């Protein structure tokens, strides 16, 4: 099985992807993660305006057979959530890097960006996990 | 399927396949010092002897013809239809309905149960049931803590004391603190850390709260905290305002009154209903209705299971993995047997008969009704001599009311009296006679 991992994104070991534009980070789960979870039926999103630290759970992703969590890749304030997921949670499966995005964070600590993984490093992690 | 015991040949064959010589070998991992040698049990008996023995034991019970005891467990008339339906082996002996393809009958019954509870309470969603009223209340407290992310729960005085014990036990395990306060002090106790407010109405002493106003007050002070109402005899919903028409977030009740006999205090039925926005935090089972992928046929199945412990593990809001299927079926059959007008009739009779006794009491010297709020079928009564009242009731074959000192030692000579539709006029007159006699005995027994 070949998964799609866009080159321009940053990644986390826990299978989140991060797109950084100026001081805003858009976050979702990777193609590999959505495959692992199976058909997504519900995503519980946080309240806008909450400030959370890197590493805490920010959203819950529910599939027909499991529950996954979305971790804050960077400390920051939640400025937007993907409300479209309420009616179309399956877009996490069909378009994990597009309409399946979950939260937008206003970054408060730029030095944390360096701790994110590059696409190559993340691909290595997936390779090991698949074994 | 019939029960077919294994014969010696089958047993030997099975032992051979798994590679052991005798059945005892299967238990050899158990340390020798833990094995009990020789239980002090009598010899086996023949079937007629067993029946005789059980009959003799049964005759030791005192069967009261009428009851004035409530306090969480009620004597209501149970339509014959209830036992007829639940005794069908398809229901009576069936196992938990995991397999939708093999359990459509039971799943539909649970779905219908959820629907009647939802309609009765006017709440959006009811679960497939919990163990009893007390555990349903405890689950509601935990759910409030999970939804709000806070760990302080307030319980208003007047909740059944045994329910409070159960809530404390559940909360202890979840690091949720519970504080019991009188209703007058509620406003001072509410703050931003309050996860939920639990109250009972009609409460343990029979008082009916104005739930509409109470819930509103709580929300005004603490908009995010959850308002949780419980009750022990939901037949009152035949005449009282349903919780769904107030700002109550979670409604729980003991469902024993719905077609389940008191049976020495159990089993019960935990009714649990809430708002749609909390759907994914509900503890326990939920049955849903669905359609075939290729076709139009409808079917029933356990749904939203990602909430539950077998999927969400330690992060689940509850560890209940079952429901009270047979008892919920009793409640369903009870409620559909009565229908909307029937339940209203039951509630009206409970109310009127209890108030008939309350009015009669005004004519008997020495007694004082202590309730200051409206009541349904229970009220508290100061007696001249409660021990004498209990004796007189027993003499007249009436199950006496509860002496409140059992739970509140300071409340001496106060009885919690319950009058339901099952109390005939004759039994009520006997009870009044017992009250009069107990007053006359006052001097002698003090």
Short summary:
With 131 residues, chain A is an alpha+beta fold. Chain A has helices spanning 31-37, 91-94, 119-130, and strands at residues 10-11, 16-21, 24-29, 40-44, 51-52, 57-63, 67-71, 76-81, 103-107. The longest helix of chain A has 12 residues, at 119-130.
Overview of this protein structure:
The complex is a heterodimer of chains A (131) and B (446). Chain A has 131 residues and is α+β, with helices and mostly antiparallel strands. Chain A has one domain (10-109): OB fold (Dihydrolipoamide Acetyltransferase, E2P), CATH 2.40.50. Helices cover 18% and strands 34% of the residues of chain A. Chain A has a six-stranded antiparallel β-sheet with strand order 1-2-3-9-8-5. A three-stranded antiparallel β-sheet of chain A has the order 4-6-7. In chain A, strand 2 (16-21) and strand 3 (24-29) form a beta hairpin. The two termini of chain A are 13 Å apart. Chain B has 446 residues and is an alpha/beta fold. Chain B has two domains: 66-75 and 339-445, Aspartate Aminotransferase, domain 1, CATH 3.90.1150; 80-335, 3-Layer(aba) Sandwich (Aspartate Aminotransferase, domain 2). Chain B has 14 helices and 15 strands. Chain B has helices at 8-18, 47-58, 80-86, 89-92, 104-121, 133-148, 161-173, 186-189, 211-221, 309-312, 325-361, 386-395, 425-440, 442-445, and strands at residues 66-67, 125-126, 152-156, 177-181, 194-200, 226-231, 250-254, 270-274, 287-291, 298-302, 368-369, 378-382, 398-399, 402-403, 414-418. In chain B, the strands form four sheets. Chain B has a seven-stranded mixed β-sheet with strand order 2-8-7-6-5-3-4, with helices on both faces. A four-stranded antiparallel β-sheet of chain B has the order 11-12-15-14, covered by helices on one side. In chain B, helix 3 (80-86) runs antiparallel to helix 11 (325-361), helix 6 crosses helix 7 and helix 12 packs across helix 13 (425-440). The mean pLDDT of chain B is 94.
């Amino acid at each position: 099985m070949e998964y799609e991992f866009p080159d321009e994104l940053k990644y986390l070991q826990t299978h989140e992807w991060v797109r950084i534009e100026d001081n805003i980070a858009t976050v979702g789960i990777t193609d590999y993660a959505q495959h692992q979870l199976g058909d997504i039926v519900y995503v519980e999103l946080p309240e806008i305006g909450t400030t959370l630290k890197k590493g805490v759970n920010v959203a819950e992703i529910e599939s027909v057979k499991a529950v996954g969590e979305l971790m804050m890749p960077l400390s920051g304030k939640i400025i937007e959530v993907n409300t479209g997921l309420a009616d179309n949670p399956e877009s996490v499966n069909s378009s994990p890097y597009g309409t399946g995005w979950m939260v937008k964070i206003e970054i408060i600590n730029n030095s944390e960006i360096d701790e994110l993984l590059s696409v190559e490093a993340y691909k290595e992690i997936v390779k090991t996990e698949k074994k | 399927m019939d029960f077919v015991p294994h014969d010696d040949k089958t047993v030997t064959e099975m032992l051979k396949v798994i590679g052991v010589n005798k059945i005892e070998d299967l238990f050899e991992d158990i340390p020798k010092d833990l094995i009990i040698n020789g239980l002090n049990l009598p010899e086996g008996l023949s079937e007629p002897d067993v029946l005789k023995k059980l009959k003799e034991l049964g005759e030791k019970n005192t069967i009261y013809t009428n009851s004035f005891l409530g306090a969480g467990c009620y004597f209501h008339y149970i339509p014959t239809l209830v036992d007829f339906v639940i005794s069908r082996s398809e229901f009576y002996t069936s196992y938990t309905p995991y397999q939708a393809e093999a359990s459509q009958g039971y799943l539909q019954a649970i779905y219908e149960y959820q629907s009647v509870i939802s309609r009765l309470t006017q709440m959006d969603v009811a679960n497939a049931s919990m163990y009893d009223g007390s555990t349903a209340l405890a689950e509601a407290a935990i759910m409030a803590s999970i939804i709000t992310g806070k760990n302080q729960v307030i319980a208003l005085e007047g909740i059944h004391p045994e329910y409070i014990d159960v809530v404390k036990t559940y909360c202890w395990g979840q690091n949720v603190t519970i504080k019991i306060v009188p209703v007058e002090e509620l406003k001072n106790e509410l703050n931003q850390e309050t996860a939920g407010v639990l109250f009972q109405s009609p409460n343990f002493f029979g008082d009916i709260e104005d739930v509409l106003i109470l819930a509103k007050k709580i929300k005004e002070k603490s908009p995010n905290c959850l308002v949780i109402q419980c009750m022990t005899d939901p037949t009152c919903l035949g005449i009282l305002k349903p919780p769904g028409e107030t700002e109550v977030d979670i409604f729980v009740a003991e469902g024993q009154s719905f077609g389940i006999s008191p049976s020495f205090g159990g089993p019960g039925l935990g009714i649990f209903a809430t708002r749609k926005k909390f759907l994914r935090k509900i503890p326990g089972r939920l049955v849903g209705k669905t359609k075939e992928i290729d076709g139009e046929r409808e079917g029933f199945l356990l749904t939203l299971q990602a909430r539950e412990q077998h999927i969400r593990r330690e992060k689940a809001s509850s560890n209940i993995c079952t429901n009270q299927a047979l008892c919920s079926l009793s409640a369903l059959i009870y409620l559909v047997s009565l229908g909307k007008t029937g339940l209203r009739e039951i509630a009206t009779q409970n109310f009127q008969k209890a108030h008939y006794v309350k009015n009669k009491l005004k004519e008997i010297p020495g007694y004082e009704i202590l309730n200051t709020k409206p009541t349904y079928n229970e009220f508290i009564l100061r007696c001249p001599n409660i021990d004498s009242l209990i004796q007189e009731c027993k003499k007249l074959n009436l199950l006496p009311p509860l002496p409140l000192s059992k739970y509140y030692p300071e409340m001496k000579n106060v009885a919690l009296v319950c009058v339901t539709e099952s109390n005939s006029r004759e039994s009520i007159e006997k009870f009044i006679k017992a009250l009069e006699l107990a007053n006359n005995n006052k001097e002698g027994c003090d």
